[in-house]
Design a protein that fits this description.
By secondary structure, the protein is α/β, with parallel strands linked by helices. The protein contains 14 helices and twelve strands. The strands form three sheets. The protein has a seven-stranded mixed beta sheet with strand order 2-8-7-6-5-3-4, with helices on both faces. The chain has a three-stranded antiparallel beta sheet with strand order 9-12-11. The longest helix has 22 residues, at 279-300.
Length: 391
């Protein structure tokens, strides 16, 4: 059993989380630290004191300043970076801009985020899903995706940098390199990457890259980035046309009239908190604690180390396979998540997978090893009731 990392002194006080609940699903919606909450509230107060001045005088320049700051954090060119509300919105912007037709094809993996696949299907193009085994090697993943591309038909390949349902690090640099020259554009869905991984988006060379900063980078919710390589920027079409349309990308994508821009403007306060704690220290803590949580919960369910999926890197999320017959449908997975929240006062993520349901555990500086210990002690009885139909 790996030893858990020592708790971060005072880290729980940086967040407004209910102390009666074990919050083991940071990867779901993040948690905004108090300094970023206060920065956003000050911005809201400023906006409400004089909405016209806030929204009509200098806002574009303030957003541009934040854009440059956040782009620097992920290693991207600010000129190719746009602020958006979340990763799914960024995907929709790309799909909308590509003007896909029925004869076109979009390739995804079965580890992708469900809403992304739905958005791709809504374009009318053919959606091809490449199955990737939970324990697939990097070589197998690269071969599966590069082999799925059909020249002249496949317009876009969407691949996750860190998968959401399976908490797996994919070899995106190799995938991007392997697809170069194939005629298919590559979109890297890095929803969980900012704050989790050291990033150099421009060096990656994907046609499109997107990432949330409200998960692991401590920004207020509704803060994400879309990065577009130079050859695509003139073709980016915003989902909503605004007065900034003539200025082109990225301003045309960012401007949405009376949207609440305070989450974007407060995002640097979240990054400042992360940097003050120590980016590398936070990453190491989260990875070690998530590994501990996976092991202790897995053992409670009768699993050993060989039964537990390897994330492939130092991630703050891990998955634990659930017993056979548990969470085999999305409806059942949602119901089980709600039961764990209500009966065990613990927030986790549950997803379905061909081999059975998966419980995803996240770790953040506000978490402690005893929260995973308590879940391990109480979860087997709840699952036994689930399998026998007891409520």
């Amino acid at each position: 059993m790996p030893a858990p990392p020592p708790a971060f002194p005072g880290a729980r006080l940086l967040f407004s989380l209910d102390p009666a609940v074990a919050h083991l699903n940071h990867g779901g919606f993040g948690a905004v630290p108090v300094p970023a909450q206060r920065a956003q509230q000050r911005l809201r107060d400023e906006m409400e004191a004089n909405p016209v001045r806030f929204l009509a005088q200098g806002l574009t320049e303030r957003i541009a300043h934040v854009r440059a700051h956040l782009a620097g954090f992920v290693g991207a060119d600010p000129a190719g970076t746009a602020l958006v509300t979340n990763a799914t919105t960024a995907v929709s912007v790309v799909l909308h801009s590509l003007r896909l037709r029925a004869e076109d094809e979009v390739v995804v993996t079965d580890h992708g985020y469900g809403a992304v696949a739905l958005a791709a299907a809504e374009t009318g193009a053919r959606l091809r899903t490449v199955p990737v085994p939970l324990r697939a090697t990097d070589d197998e993943i690269v071969a599966g995706l590069t082999g799925a591309v059909q020249p002249g038909r496949t317009r876009l390949v969407i691949v996750d940098q860190i998968t959401s349902p399976t908490a797996k690090l994919l070899p995106v640099a190799r995938i991007v390199a392997g697809l170069r020259g194939s005629g298919a554009a590559v979109l890297v869905d890095a929803a969980h990457a900012p704050g989790t991984l050291p990033l150099s988006v421009d060096e990656l060379g994907a046609d499109f890259w997107l990432g949330n900063l409200h998960k692991w980078a401590y920004a207020p919710r509704g803060t994400a980035l879309l990065v577009v390589t130079e050859q695509w920027r003139e073709r980016i079409a915003p989902l909503v046309v605004s007065w900034r349309q003539p200025e082109g990308y990225p301003t045309s994508v960012e401007n949405q009239g009376t949207a609440d821009y305070t989450s974007w403007l407060a995002a640097p306060a979240g990054l400042h908190t992360l940097r003050t704690i120590g980016v590398e220290a936070v990453r190491a803590h989260n990875s070690t604690l998530a590994g501990y949580g996976q092991m202790v919960v897995g053992r409670a369910l009768g699993l050993d180390g060989t039964d537990l999926p390897d994330p492939g890197g130092a991630l703050g999320m891990r998955v634990v396979p659930l017993p056979e017959g548990v969470a085999t449908t999305q409806e059942d997975a949602s119901a089980l998540r709600d039961r764990i929240a209500a009966e065990l006062a613990t927030e986790v993520a549950i997803s379905t997978w061909p081999s059975g349901g998966l419980l995803r555990l996240s770790a953040q500086v506000y978490n402690r090893a005893d929260e995973y210990d308590r879940l391990a002690e109480r979860l087997p009885a709840l699952l036994n009731g689930e399998m026998t139909g007891q409520r």
